[in-house]
Design a protein that fits this description.
mainly alpha, Arc Repressor Mutant, subunit A
């Protein structure tokens, strides 16, 4: 018959309502959804109506979960989508609707995220352009956007200067050590920080002690 036979406030969460159809639990929803759809004991519900209510409730929960995640820190579309998929197990179409809703309201903006994250990285942690792109990619920034932002922000001259500076600082921490050991250490350090081989070898040549030359 699909008749609502009881509407009860949940014991563990007073903001949640349990809806019973034909004497059996059928749906959990928010009090807001209950009021919006004017659900009452005795009302008849067909399967389509129940399905729409379930979808509306999932969408409401997904929006709330997304806003909680964004309340901790800014995120990329990919990062937020992944978290809603794996942690909350929301349906794909629900997540897509939430993402579109957040983008429309300015809560999700990959370009803004990439620029702000890049500015922070450059102020605290100098890296090569490859390393900066890799950092942004790891946080969900699309590859093309990450590369574009890095290319616009960091010039080849700046990258070269940083490579030489970091190489000199690393070498200065190892006074008295043989050059081959210093060289290996500096090379690995710059490589881990995302500098390409050409820049690394140029930086090593710039700091190599004169006595090592033939």
């Amino acid at each position: 018959m699909n008749r609502i036979t009881a509407i009860k406030q949940q014991k563990k969460n007073s903001s949640r309502i349990s809806v019973y159809v034909d004497g059996e639990y059928r749906l959990g929803c928010s009090a807001e959804l209950l009021g919006r759809h004017n659900l009452k004991v005795g009302e008849m519900l067909d399967e389509q109506q129940i399905s729409r209510l379930e979808q509306a409730e999932e969408l409401s929960q997904a929006k709330a979960a997304a806003l909680r995640l964004l309340g901790h820190r800014a995120r990329t579309v990919a990062d937020l989508t992944k978290r809603l998929q794996h942690k909350n197990k929301f349906a794909e179409h629900t997540i897509a609707e939430v993402v579109a809703w957040l983008i429309e309201r300015g809560y999700l903006n990959d370009t803004q995220y990439a620029q702000e994250r890049l500015d922070h990285l450059l102020s605290t942690d100098k890296r090569g352009r490859m390393g900066l792109v890799a950092k942004l990619r790891a946080e969900g920034v699309p590859r093309a956007l990450a590369q574009e932002m890095v290319d616009q922000t960091v010039s080849a001259e700046q990258e070269q200067q940083w490579a030489h500076q970091l190489a000199a600082e690393r070498a200065n921490r190892m006074p008295g050590r043989e050059w081959p050991k210093v060289k290996r250490s500096v090379h690995g350090y710059l490589q881990r920080r995302g500098f390409d081989s050409e820049l690394i070898w140029a930086a090593l040549a710039a700091i190599e002690p004169e006595e090592t030359f033939d």
